[in-house]
Amino acid sequence: MKKTLALALALAMVLGLTACGGGGGTSQPAAGSNPGASANQPSSTPSTVANKDKPLVWFNRQPSNSSTGELDMDAMSFNKDTYYVGFDANQGAELQGQMILDYITANIDTIDRNGDGVIGYVLAIGDIGHNDSIARTRGVRKALDTAVEEGGAIKSDAVGTNADGKATAVKDGKLTIGGKEYTVRELASQEMKNSAGATWDAATAGNTIGTWVSTFGDQIDVVASNNDGMGMAMFNAWSKENNVPTFGYDANSDAVAAIAEGYGGTISQHADVQAYLTLRVLRNALDGVDIDTGIGTADDAGNVLSDDVYKYVDSERSYYALNVAVTADNYTDFLDATVPYAPVSNQLSQDTHPTKSVWLNIYNAADNFLSATYQPLLQNYDDILNLNVEYIGGDGQTEANITNRLGNPSQYDAFAINMVKTDNSASYTALLNQ
Length: 434
Ligand code: BGC
What we know:
Blueprint: H1 2-20, E1 56-59, H2 73-76, E2 82-87, H3 89-106, H4 108-111, E3 118-125, H5 131-143, E4 149-150, E5 153-154, E6 160-161, E7 173-177, E8 180-191, H6 202-216, E9 220-225, H7 228-239, E10 246-247, H8 253-258, E11 266-268, H9 271-287, E12 310-313, E13 318-321, E14 324-326, E15 356-362, H10 368-384, E16 387-393, H11 400-403, E17 414-417, H12 425-433
Parallel strand pairs: 1-2, 1-17, 2-13, 3-8, 3-9, 9-10, 15-16, 15-17
Antiparallel strand pairs: 4-5, 6-8, 7-8, 11-14, 12-13
Bound molecules: beta-D-glucopyranose.
Beta-D-glucopyranose is lined by residues 60-61, 126, 132, 200, 227, 229, 249-250, 367, 369.
């Protein structure tokens, strides 16, 4: 009898653990992740801190209103240890526009493929409600003089197709190069969203370029994209073979390598700095040290960032990495996007920075930038910072697909969140407030 009870108890315990275990049952690693890669041990003492008081970092998708772009400061000041980590979207967008303009200027004698006097470009939009995507659309339009302002801001809507230059979201631009005036037209632009609702969708971009080519043919002189995932899909599907310069964003390794084969260029958003900051702000809060430790101020292992690679905006509780253009001139310096940034790659000691556990999600396991660049970087830094990170990969469509896998927040010391939609911070904070 006693034995049966003991057995039953043991079984119940095993089942109970499986049901609430972070790795068990509900959570799956993101595509491309290697859950066994971390050498870290789980944190030894279970946390007694209330979930609502645990360090929280939002990253890559800044809590904000997806229609107006207004920052969601409630989310970013959820508790005293809450921050956002991303990159300077406007500075990067300006660089992207300038990079395309520089290319056109340098190649003006050959750029107009059909010689009709109009430099035509098409634009792949990532997510019309994501502030990084909006900034890039605006940056391209501003540099190429196709921007139309409304209420003091450049319109960022997609035009669909614009064969005659009459679309209202853009205008025909005028560029004077070498004393001669040229017209620039945004022939087409579209949000790259698949039928299931995932945005920034590379496969959709790869198909759409086919449609655009059948409509516009050799009127297309330049292909622009809000990111490299979509840019590379269009390059591989069409522009590489047809020698049409294609520009993206993110400096993913495959895109940088493609510069040798005619990809026009991309922007590095210093993901190596962002991934570090994402985990570093959590580490600092867990250590109870000044938030600037290992960021603007060297830590005990010598890790420190210089202010040419990031900025902190206190009123927005946000760290922003700074961007760099990657073109034929400098791409060999950027070939591996997953290498930790040398000034912040010194191992922390276990004695002073004992292992802690972090729950972290990637909104879409299929997103090229997040899965091929950002997550591998995080996986390098989690070892350096003694963080035992559980990586959850979402489907890019619904918040619930991710929040369902945060069944037991009490099990973790800190959280790093990458929302599907920037408006949805409450889906996560509600779980921490329970
Ligand atoms: C990246 C994109 C990515 C998106 C997802 C952006 O910051 O540049 O490539 O797809 O974030 O949120």
